[in-house]
Amino acid sequence: MTGHIRRRGANSWEIKFDVGTDPLTGRRRTRYATFKGTKRAAEVELARLVAQHAAGEGVDPTKATLRDFLDRWERDWAATNVSPKTLERYKQLLRLYVDPYMGAFRIQKLRAVHLNELYATLMRSGGSRSATLAPRTVGHVHRVLHRALGHAATWGVIGQNVASLVSPPRVPDAEIQIISEEQIGVLLRHLEGRSLRAIVSFLLGTGARRGEALALRWADVDFHN
Q1: Residue 54 above 80 pLDDT?
Q2: Distance of alpha carbon 86 from alpha carbon 140, whole angstroms
Q3: Burial class, 124, CB count within 10 angstroms (exposed 0-12 / middle 13-18 / buried 19+)
């Protein structure tokens, strides 16, 4: 297999390489990719792509969709580098709010304007749900995409993490609403005689988070003190 690079811009290169003969037409097949960096780095990337195709592992980078990459990212990186709960949340955000709108986008064609459009759409319609999304939730979507596309850029799938060029919606400041002593009394009386009352009393008395409360063991309790 052979190939070469051609300058496209000040720091951008077109990589062109041969991937063999089409068995149906007998014509030579060529693949193209865009790369941002130095000329030497582009030459190294060309060598890597040629070697990858020679080993039978090549995928035409110009045809990979955002869905293709995110599926691989979940399977090959997120599944082994984040907690199961975080992975579940990542999958939920991508499945509900990214894939329906942008899954079919070719990842190399993805631009900052497309992410801006996605966030605006989610704020208006909530994606695949009927209700609009809160700015905080759209911000979570942005952070997942920023992380995934950051890896895409690091791994040479794309030339730049376009999510770094986009700002998530501003989350307005809101004062936390705390229930009154009277409301606490009503709640505890309602739970009288129920097993849930003990843990609710603990949560109200300590302000512990749900995960902290569920992780408690009897060994954590010092009855003497």
Answers
A1: no
A2: 12
A3: exposed
Q: How do the domains of the chain map onto residue ranges?
A: 3-54, 66-165, 181-220
Percent of the chain with pLDDT over 90: 38
Residue 122 burial (10 A CB sphere; 0-12, 13-18, 19+): buried
Cβ neighbors of 188 (< 8 A, separation 6 or more) are: 197, 200, 201, 204
The runs of H, that is alpha helices, within 79-217 are 79-81, 84-97, 99-102, 112-125, 135-154, 181-190, 196-206, 210-214
Closest residue by Cα to residue 76 from 146, 139, 152, 140: 152
Where would I find the beta strands (DSSP E) of 23-110? 28-36
Supply the pLDDT for residue 188: 92
Q: Does the structural domain 66-165 have CATH classification 1.10.150.130?
A: yes
Q: What is the percent of the chain with per-residue pLDDT over 70, rounded to a whole number?
A: 89
pTM over 0.85: no
3-state secondary structure of 188: helix
C-beta separation of 148 from 69 below 8 A: yes
Sheet containing 28-36, strands listed edge to edge, beginning at the edge strand earlier in sequence: 3-9, 12-21, 28-36
